[in-house]
């Protein structure tokens, strides 16, 4: 976790926390895979974030007597100290995401597995295993040897008060409310439809349901892979369209 916090770039961890990966996933019913082990990120127990003194010191800060590490926000000459509201926002986002990871760990790995991208707490790859076994999509997955749908989530600075950006990485899916680049057409992923009460688990479950409702199928034709740039452009366009027409089917000329 120390590596994770250092890579975030704004915080320095004084005392490394340790944790052990948890569990392995058994292959789902009808899956062509024999299963594998999935590493879950270990989490610190309630870090404390504070502003560092305006000096350029490479020495770590001493830990607290209660066993929790102190996360210092380094400052340097000529660089403005972060405003209290900015620090508070960082605390809220980090605390919420670490709680979400802990809660997801308790689910086991039959439904989904979370992996941090480059040890970055604010970007996740999520492997979604739980798809309706009576659906054509599940049948497609069995026939093509695909065990899970891989999603990418990035969390903005004002999360959980703004939604994460979620897109499909693989496999390439036709329909199922999955659009160009892997963008996802779901109202709850938009600023208008989002609520800070939504959890990542709830969002992923809703996505799994929308795949089936929208008759999603694995694309078996050779096409270019999904891309983040295309997904962001597509999502921006669909939000603009739905803001104009609401969440109803817009004219075909509007996409």
Task: Describe the 3D structure.
The protein has 255 residues and is of the alpha+beta class. It has a domain at 131-255: Ubiquitin Conjugating Enzyme (Roll), CATH 3.10.110. It is 28% helix and 18% strand. The protein is built from five helices and eleven strands. The protein has helices spanning 2-8, 84-106, 136-144, 200-213, 228-245, and strands spanning 12-13, 24-25, 36-37, 48-51, 70-73, 112-117, 120-128, 149-154, 165-170, 173-174, 217-218. The strands form four sheets. It has a four-stranded antiparallel β-sheet with strand order 6-7-8-9, sandwiched between helices. It has a three-stranded mixed β-sheet with strand order 1-5-4. Strand 6 (112-117) and strand 7 (120-128) form a beta hairpin. The model is unreliable at 7-37, 46-64, 67-74 and 249-255 (pLDDT under 50). Its EC number is 2.3.2.23. GO terms for molecular function: ATP binding; ubiquitin conjugating enzyme activity. It is an enzyme of class 2 (transferase). Keywords: ATP-binding, Nucleotide-binding, Transferase, Ubl conjugation pathway. It comes from Eptatretus burgeri (Inshore hagfish).
Keywords:
four-stranded antiparallel beta sheet, 28% helix, three-stranded mixed beta sheet, Ubiquitin Conjugating Enzyme, alpha+beta, 5 helices, disordered C terminus, globular, 255 residues
Shape: globular
**Sheet having the most strands:** 4 strands, antiparallel
End-to-end separation in angstroms reads 43 Å
Uncertain stretches of 5 or more adjacent residues: 7-37, 46-64, 67-74, 249-255
Question: What fraction of residues sit in β-strands?
Answer: 15-25%
* SSE order: HEEEEEHEEHEEEHEH
Residue-averaged pLDDT: 76
Record the strand order, biggest sheet. 6-7-8-9
